[in-house]
Amino acid sequence: MSLLETVSMPVLETERFDLRPVRLSDRGLIEHYASDERVARMTSSIPHPLPPTAAEAFVTRVTAPESDEHVWALDATRQGGAELMGLVTLTRLDADQSEVSYWVAPAFWNTGIASDAVQALVDANPLGNATMFAITFQDNPASARVLTHAGFEYIGDAETYSVARAAKIPTWTYLRKLR
Fold it and tell me: Per-residue b/e over 9-25, b at no fewer than 16 CB within 10 Å?
């Protein structure tokens, strides 16, 4: 598949919530949660403080047809819950590989929804990947548990720059073979 081809993003149902494509109306909740320093510090790309137009620019970028980022919102409205509890993303690396990333709003930490979201994404494999990769900061062992619960295997240490921390942060890298 060409990087310029668009992928129809399915809604992925779990018992407690749905993973649905991000939509323009999500930008307010994304801004609210991404503005939380606890969320930003556990990502490489969310700045803190969050600039006023950052959430709008993010949603515009990831909903563009040519985007190589495929972003789903964790939405529990079908089950009577919150409309947006976090995001999970697949970023295409090449035709058969993607990187998984995710964040969950602090109100929903330690509830297992990150594990459910990553597992649903792995099970559905919407981009037809042979391999998924993920990284987590070494000071976030809960995120490492999310990955290992979804069958990812640790493959090594590295480091990546965190915009919110304005520093290089040690990471653990994980891999999940799908075929």
Answer: beebebebbbbbebeee
pTM of the predicted protein model: 0.94
Q: What are phi and psi of 40, to 5 degrees?
A: -60, -40
Q: Is there a contact between 132 and 98 (Cβ–Cβ < 8 Å)?
A: yes
Environment class of residue 143 by beta-carbon count within 10 Å: exposed (0-12), middle (13-18) or buried (19+)? buried
Please determine, looking at this structure, whether the domain spanning 12-177 carries the CATH number 3.40.50.300.
Answer: no
**Which residues does 100 contact at the CB level (< 8 Å), separation at least 6?**
88, 89, 90, 118, 121, 122, 132, 133, 134, 147
pLDDT tens string 119-173: 999 999 999 999 999 999 999 999 999 999 999 999 999 999 999 999 999 999 9
Per domain, the residue ranges of the chain are 12-177
